Amino acid sequence: MTDATTTSDKFDRVQKIVDELRTMRDELRVQLHLAGMEAQTRWKEDLQPRLDKLEAEIEQAGRNLGDTLERQSLELRDQIRELWSTVRDKAKR
After folding, report:
1. Which of 20, 22, 29 is nearest to 87 (CA)?
2. I need a surface site. Which of 19, 37, 53, 58 has the fewest CB within 10 A?
3. Residue 47, number of CB atoms within 10 A of its CB
4. What is the mean pLDDT, run by run of 10 residues, along the chain of 93 residues?
5. Helix or strand run (H / E) with residue 76
C-alpha cells in the first residue's frame, strides 16, 4: 500500500466522520431548544467551535491528513454522539 492510498483512505474515513458530524449537528440544532441549558452551553461553547475548527483544518489540509486529524474527528464524533443521546433522551420525556 502506498502513502497516497493510505492518505486517501484516511481522507475518506475522516470525510465520512465529518459528514456524520454535520448530520448530527443539523439534527441537534433542531432539538437543542428542548434540551436544558447545560446541553446548550456545552454545544455552543465547546463542541460547535471544535467542529467548526476541525472542518477548517480538514479543508486546509486537503488530502494530506494525518493521524491527528483522524483522532480528533473520532473523539469529537464520540462526544457529539454522547450529547446527542442526552438531548434525544430529554426530548422523549
Report:
1. 29
2. 37
3. 21
4. 69 90 87 77 90 87 74 90 86 74
5. helix 67-92
Q: How far apart are CA 18 and CA 58, in angstroms?
A: 9
d(CA 55, CA 58): 5
pTM (2 decimals)?
Answer: 0.55
What's the full length of the chain, in residues? 93
- Rounded distance between C-alpha atoms, residue 72 and residue 76, angstroms: 6
* The predicted structure's pLDDT at residue 84: 86
